[in-house]
Design goal:
With 197 residues, the chain is an alpha+beta fold. Helix content is 29%, strand content 37%.
Length: 197
């Protein structure tokens, strides 16, 4: 696994880089034997050090694992983020391994089909400034595939990628569905009833 360690306006020393690489190799390789790469970025926010970790699992299933943690000590921040990734991987170990062993040639034509979409990043506008014709300014746009998943696979992907919400095509129904984290800590699943294709 290729591991890139960097800092945003921070000088990252050899000792921290070695610690990061050893911990990630040990923690991630238990679950992803063929993980392609990992990126760890350290930054400082106010008085806290922040560690962001992104791991590409490398099986072709399109799973990205993300985690972050903050602490006054940079090592503790990284260890907290690494521990969160390890917990996520333990929780979803069987599902990840079963998806990893399923080859693309084993999938049906229906499973291979993906619905294309676009992902937008918009600036928020205060409510008092919004008129009937006003819309937020779009600051980024990129293609986004919408995968065919079961609801449990969608929840797993959302958790591993540390996303607040995930849109997917339900494998069983063919409907465009959404899963999202609720403020009370639970996860909601919304089935639109609209066929994706």
């Amino acid at each position: 696994m290729q591991i890139q360690v960097s800092g945003k306006k921070l000088d990252i020393g050899e000792a921290l880089t070695t610690h990061v690489k050893e911990r990630l190799i040990k923690g991630v390789s238990k679950y992803f034997e063929h993980a392609i790469n990992a990126e760890v970025v350290f930054s400082k926010e106010a008085h806290l050090m922040r560690a962001d970790i992104h791991v590409n699992e490398g099986t072709g299933a399109g799973i990205m694992i993300k985690s972050r943690a903050e602490n006054t000590d940079i090592y503790v921040a990284f260890d907290g983020a690494a521990e969160r990734i390890e917990k996520q991987l333990r929780r979803y170990k069987r599902k990840i391994r079963s998806r990893a062993t399923k080859k693309v040639t084993d999938l049906s034509e229906k499973e291979l089909k993906q619905l294309g979409g676009k992902k937008f990043v918009m600036t928020p506008l205060p409510e008092e400034e919004l008129g009937e014709e006003d819309a937020p300014l779009i600051i980024a746009e990129k293609p986004q595939s919408i995968d065919r998943l079961t609801a449990s696979e969608a929840v797993m992907r959302m958790d591993l990628a540390d996303l607040p919400t995930l849109v997917f095509v339900n494998k069983q129904t063919g409907n465009l569905d959404v899963v999202y984290h609720r403020k009370d800590g639970n996860i909601s699943w919304v089935s639109s009833g609209v066929k994706a294709s």
